[in-house]
Amino acid sequence: MIQISTYVHDDRARLDITGRFDFNGRKAIREAYDPLLDDKGVRSIEIGLDKVEYIDSSALGILLLLRDRAAEAGKKIVLCRATGTVQKVLAVANFERLFEIRS
Q1: If we measure between CA atoms, which residue out of 60, 46, 67, 61 comes closest to residue 4?
Q2: How many Cα atoms occupy the beta-carbon half-sphere of 40 within 13 Å?
Q3: Pairing of strands 76-80, 12-21
Q4: Among 71, 75, 61, residue whose Cα is nearest residue 29
Q5: Which domains does the chain have, with CATH numbers?
Q6: Would you say residue 85 has pLDDT above 90?
Q7: What is the mean pLDDT of residues 9-29?
Q8: Of 60 and 1, more confident
Q9: Distance from C-alpha of 17 to C-alpha of 55, rounded to nearest angstrom
Q10: How far is Cα 103 from Cα 83, in angstroms, rounded to an integer?
């Protein structure tokens, strides 16, 4: 089960994801980021990954789709605070070439 908390401050938004980030969470993720993509005041969206227990290839696809949609809307996606296995999965997938990744 996935839980998502959304915070907006000035021109930055943050989605903090908790739990298993997999195909079953696609609807919840989309419902969380769609309003942020539509918000003209938001310039960047940070995705907090420090509370993600598990991430799979479908979640990576969701992040890639979000990155593409954000680029179309003139916004930047930043992946933040990935640890452990999540950090390793992002590294194996070469996501540092596709996203800004912050500790």
Answers
A1: 46
A2: 0
A3: unpaired
A4: 61
A5: 2-102 (3.30.750.24)
A6: yes
A7: 95
A8: 60
A9: 11
A10: 8
- Give the full edge-to-edge strand order of the sheet including 2-9: 2-9, 12-21, 44-55, 76-80, 100-102
Nearest CA-CA partner of 40 in 83, 18, 73: 73
Residue 68 has pLDDT above 90, yes or no: yes
pTM: 0.93
3-state secondary structure of 42: coil
Q: What is the pLDDT of residues 28-62, one digit of tens each?
A: 999 999 999 999 999 999 999 999 999 999 999 99
Q: Can you tell me whether residue 99 is helix, strand or coil?
A: coil
**pLDDT for the residue 103:** 87
